[in-house]
Amino acid sequence: MKRILPLVAAFFVSNVRLAATEGYEIKTILTGSSPTSSRNANWKPGDGLVLEVGGMDFTADGKLAVAIRKGEVWLLDGVFGPPDRVRYTVFASGLHEPLGVLRDGDSLLVTQRTEVTRLRDTNGDGVADEYLTAARGWNVSGAYHGYTYGPKRDGAGQIWVALNLDMGERSDNTAGWRGWGGVMGAAHSFVPMVAGLRSPCGLGANAAGDMFCVDQQGTWIPATPIYHLRKGVFFLNPEGIAAQERPESPLKLSAPVPSKVPYPAALRAVPEMVPPAVWLPYNKMGRSGTDLAVCASDGKFGPFDGQFFVGEFTDAKVGRVFLEKVDGEYQGAAFPFLAGFASGVVRVHFAPDGSLLVGMSSRGWSSLGTQAYGLQRVRWTGTTPFAIREMRALPDGFELGFTNDVDPASAARADSYTLKSYTYLYSNAYGSAEIDTVPLNVTSANVGADRRRVRLRVDGLRALYVHELRAAGVRSAAGAALTHPDAYYTLNRIPRRP
C-alpha cells in the first residue's frame, strides 16, 4: 500500500538562511532528532520520518529518490519549493542498510550489504513491486562495518561498487572482496578492479568521466584520501589483499607491503601501489570524508564548474577539490568551502537546478551537527566569493587562479604567501601525524595581466608531498580578504620543464 507523508510539525523545518559563507546559503528541507521509526507497527500518516540519508538520485519525473539507513527508499516531490509542501512517498522497503541510489532507465539501482538491487514499479502505482538482483558476488560476514557503497556510473557506462573492510566481531577480510572496488558485470556479477580500500564511503565521476572514491582515515590510512579508480592498482590498506590470490583478481602485489616508513618510501617499495590524487589533511579539511559530486551546473553554482565537492561527516561540512593531470595522472588541491550543516554529511548530489543537495545522518557517531539526520540544500546567491579557485603545479612553483580580480600590490608580495610541505607515516596505526615538515621559500609572486592569476616561484618542491599554502596577505581589487586563504596541494609529480 502506498504511504504518503506530508511534512508535519514534528520536524524541524526552515526556509531561512543558515550558516552561509559569502555567496552561498544553506536551506533546510527536513532535519530532526526524533527516534520514531517510519516502520513502527503502529505507524500512521503524520508520524515522523527518520531521514538518515544513504543515497540520492532524481527519477525521470523529477522526484528525489532517497535511500535511508533503516532500509527504505522514499520519493520526495517538491524539494525545490517550500519545505512544508514537500510530499514523501515510500517507494521500497525491506532493504539491508542501503547506501546508494542510481537511476538506470525506468528503474532504480540500490546498494544493499549483500547485493545491488534493481527496483521497478511495473504497474505504475508509485511503489516498487519488482526487486531483482543486479550484482552480487562479495563476502558478507555480518560484521558491523561490512557496508557496500555505490552504485555510480563512469563516463564509459561502467557502474562501480566499493566494499568496506569488515571490522569488529565476525569480520572476515580473507574472503573476497572486502576492501576492493569493482564494476557490475555480466550475469549479475561483480568484477573486481582495485584493492587497498578501507572505508570507501563515496564514489563519483569527474567531468571527464573518470571514477573517484573518498576513503577514510584509519589503519594504514594516515589521512582522508581521494583515489582515481582504475583497473589493476593498489592504494593504501592491505587488510583485504588476500583476495589477490583469487583467479578473478586484476592484480597481485609483487613486493611485501612495508610498515612504519614515510609514505613516499612505501610507494617506491610496492610497484602496484599508487598515490591518492588528493590528500585531505586531518582537521584542516575534516576528519571523515564521505562523498563527492562534480559540479556541472553551467555557472548556476558559482565559479566552480568542473570541481568536486566533498562531504565531511565529523565536522558537518563540505569541502572543494580542484584536479589536474600531470604526466597523465591526476593530482590537485583541496580547499575549505562551507560549514554549519545540521548533521554529519553522508551524501552530496547536484540537482538539475544547479543547487547542491546535502544528505545527513549522525548514525550514533560523533558529529558537530546538532541534529540526528536531515536533508539540506546549498544555493549560490549570485555573489561570487573571493577565493582561490584553482592551484596548478609548475616546474618551479604553483599558479593560483582567483575568482575575482586581485589587488596587484598585495598579490605581488612574496610575503603574502607561506608554504610548507609534509608527508605521513605509512603503518598499521590509526592515522598519522604530519611528518618531515619543511617550510618553503616563496621567492616571487607575479600577477597576470588579467589580475586573476598569480604565479608563485617556490624553492624546494618535493614530489609525493602535500604542499600547504596560506595566502593570508592577498586582497581583492575591492580590498576583501580571501574567504578561505588555505589550500592543500598533493604534489605527486612535479611538471617537467617544456
Descriptive account of the structure:
With 498 residues, this protein is mostly beta strands. It has 2 domains: 4-380, TolB, C-terminal domain (Neuraminidase, 6 Propeller), CATH 2.120.10; 388-491, Immunoglobulin-like (Sandwich), CATH 2.60.40.1220. It is 2% helix and 41% strand. It contains 2 helices and 34 strands. The chain has helices at residues 263-269, 408-411, and strands spanning 4-6, 24-32, 53-58, 64-68, 72-77, 87-92, 101-104, 107-111, 116-120, 130-135, 148-153, 159-163, 180-184, 190-195, 202-205, 211-214, 224-228, 233-234, 261-262, 278-280, 289-294, 308-312, 317-326, 329-339, 345-350, 356-361, 373-380, 388-394, 397-402, 418-426, 434-447, 453-459, 465-470, 486-491. The strands form 6 sheets. Strands 19, 21, 22, 23, 24, 28, 29, 30, 31, 32, 33 and 34 form a 12-stranded antiparallel beta sheet that branches. Strand 3 and strand 4 (64-68) form a beta hairpin. The longest helix is centred in the middle third of the chain and has 7 residues, at 263-269. The radius of gyration is 23 Å and the shape is globular. The N and C termini lie far apart (67 Å). The relative contact order is 0.12.
